[in-house]
């Protein structure tokens, strides 16, 4: 019997807020993606979810998003008892993934993940699917209509397993366009935005802007805007390496 394949595990968290340790996890969901014998990435296994006692009350603001109540998690295990088995299915796990992974990384610390690399499907979507009008997990779901996504299995939105299940379809398609290494590299960088987000140039592609506008955006408070403007300035004036196209033959570590 062949051994189980190596996997990339997609993670989604529902929490009491976005600033640990003041806030805690109340649900974790996951869905694995694996490289098949035909060289194509596909969803693997059934995935799952675990409720978590966050150790504090859940504010109405976050209950209104995920609809998890205090009584739903009162008897659930604590985060440190749940996290490691889900986040570190050693030795099969190649990397972890999430949509806007910087949020999950706040709670899924290196001590819990054994220092895993992360793939951010949001940042990778900015690179691979630049024509998309939006880049949220659910927008990409309906804009791209990923093959094989079972509609009801991906509902309700803003719950841990359905969101992980939807994200896993985006990740599968990304891995069939670019290598694991490339997706991890992009995920470590700020987001490379396809279009200007605000102001008189809103909606324009960055190459359409004058240098003066780019210089202004390069001082923006938003790290993604600063980075994108600087990349365009460097490209325009030959000061940095050209953006590399995605590798078409994905390789596993």
From TrEMBL:
<feature type="domain" description="Exonuclease">
    <location>
        <begin position="7"/>
        <end position="180"/>
    </location>
</feature>
<dbReference type="GO" id="GO:0045004">
    <property type="term" value="P:DNA replication proofreading"/>
</dbReference>
<dbReference type="GO" id="GO:0008408">
    <property type="term" value="F:3'-5' exonuclease activity"/>
</dbReference>
<keyword id="KW-0378">Hydrolase</keyword>
<dbReference type="InterPro" id="IPR013520">
    <property type="entry name" value="Ribonucl_H"/>
</dbReference>
<dbReference type="InterPro" id="IPR036397">
    <property type="entry name" value="RNaseH_sf"/>
</dbReference>
<keyword id="KW-0269">Exonuclease</keyword>
<dbReference type="GO" id="GO:0005829">
    <property type="term" value="C:cytosol"/>
</dbReference>
<dbReference type="Pfam" id="PF00929">
    <property type="entry name" value="RNase_T"/>
</dbReference>
<dbReference type="GO" id="GO:0003676">
    <property type="term" value="F:nucleic acid binding"/>
</dbReference>
<feature type="region of interest" description="Disordered">
    <location>
        <begin position="233"/>
        <end position="253"/>
    </location>
</feature>
<feature type="compositionally biased region" description="Basic and acidic residues">
    <location>
        <begin position="233"/>
        <end position="246"/>
    </location>
</feature>
<keyword id="KW-0540">Nuclease</keyword>
<dbReference type="InterPro" id="IPR012337">
    <property type="entry name" value="RNaseH-like_sf"/>
</dbReference>
<protein>
    <submittedName>
        <fullName>Exonuclease domain-containing protein</fullName>
    </submittedName>
</protein>
